[in-house]
Specification:
mainly beta; 5% helix; 16-stranded antiparallel beta barrel; Porin; 352 residues; 2 helices
């Protein structure tokens, strides 16, 4: 049966159709004894995706189709931390949904891209490429982007991405959002430094949300907007060809309207050490911090929330990874009723 399955998959791949599955489970434990549930709490996310190479299947060069189904189960057990910045980026209400369904066409060796459908906007905008293994949601994109059409429910949209000489480029997108229509513009630049060709990236984005949203003072705001930026830079890489050791860092900034958004400013940053031990070239070690400033109109007791995070990712084999993660939450939720806590979350990732 396994041989038949592998043969069937090989035939699908020859025709331009490939499949991928991934299961992610987070189990969290509050390490403050007087707020400990005793058992912790857990949730999972399960994805099945299919990618279509249009050239192999239909003879259309430069095209890619993509469909992704997701099932998510909300936490079972209970939590008492009440953090404003989610310490698990798979936290969401339980659902089974068609998560993404889009088609993309490329021209001029990929320098021009057009994409449309149901798209996770964070795969195209405000992306922090080196921060993918962190669990806190603010490491993936600035929480100041109000009603950003990303996890847990992407929205229909379309975008155009242009790449020019010397690493410059720009992406323009329009998406349906929870409260109207969101327009995004993100100029960017990529570069390489030194003999080791250390990769770097800078993007500065603007977003505008057209749609009535309630202000904290009771008014309705017809337009909301904000800015964000991302900087990433490789700092060191082993010159030995058979070693994968490397060190990189990232920085984030975001700003939005405090009349509507609970977050008026965001600053985050971190560092990643790939293969901290030479004998384990696929493992990774990361440390980061994220801070949000609360709107003075939103009724918080504190001016902001600060979270620090550290993880060690262990690659056990081609299909299984374990990522123990710890986060310290300072002024969680911005309220005096919520004491500072440490949350420990081992993540298990199974993929095929």
């Amino acid at each position: 049966m396994a041989t038949l399955s592998r043969e069937a998959l090989r035939r699908f791949q020859e025709r331009g159709l490939s499949f991928h599955t991934q299961f992610v489970n987070d189990w969290s434990k509050n390490l403050r004894p007087d707020y400990d549930s005793g058992y912790g709490w857990s949730r999972y996310s399960f994805d099945v995706s299919a990618t279509l190479d249009s050239e192999k299947s239909l003879g259309w060069k430069g095209g890619t189709g993509f469909a992704r189904l997701k099932q998510h189960l909300h936490e079972f057990g209970w939590s008492t931390d009440q953090a404003a910045q989610l310490y698990s980026n798979i936290d969401a209400a339980s659902r089974t949904t068609l998560y993404e369904l889009w088609y993309e066409q490329k021209w001029l060796a990929g320098n021009i891209r057009v994409k449309g459908g149901k798209i996770d906007a964070n795969t195209e905008f405000a992306t922090v490429e080196n921060a993918g293994d962190f669990l806190n949601s603010s490491m993936g994109f600035s929480p100041t982007i109000l009603t950003f059409p990303t996890y847990p429910e992407p929205k229909p949209g379309a975008l155009v991405s242009l790449a020019a000489m010397h690493g410059y480029g720009i992406s323009l997108g329009v998406f349906q959002a929870a409260a109207g229509t969101m327009t995004l513009a993100e100029p960017r630049r990529h570069w390489s430094l030194g003999e080791s060709e250390l990769a770097g990236h800078f993007s500065a984005g603007y977003w505008r949300l057209d749609g009535a949203m309630p202000c904290f003072d009771g008014r309705m705001s017809p337009v909301n907007q904000g800015f964000y930026s991302v900087v990433e830079q490789g700092l060191w890489r082993s010159k030995t060809t058979d070693r994968h050791q490397a060190f990189s860092a990232f920085f984030q900034f975001g700003r939005s309207n405090g009349d509507v958004s609970p977050f008026t400013q965001h600053i985050g940053g971190g560092a990643i050490w790939q293969a901290p031990f030479a004998a384990r070239p696929q493992d990774g070690l990361g440390a980061a911090a994220t801070w949000v400033k609360f709107s003075p109109m939103a009724g918080y007791d504190y001016s902001g929330e600060w979270i620090t995070e550290g993880y060690y990712k262990v690659i056990l084999n081609a299909h299984l990874a374990v990522l123990p993660d710890a986060q310290f939450l300072h002024h969680p939720g911005g309220l005096r009723a919520h004491p500072d806590v440490v949350v420990f979350t081992p993540r298990v990732v199974i993929s095929f």
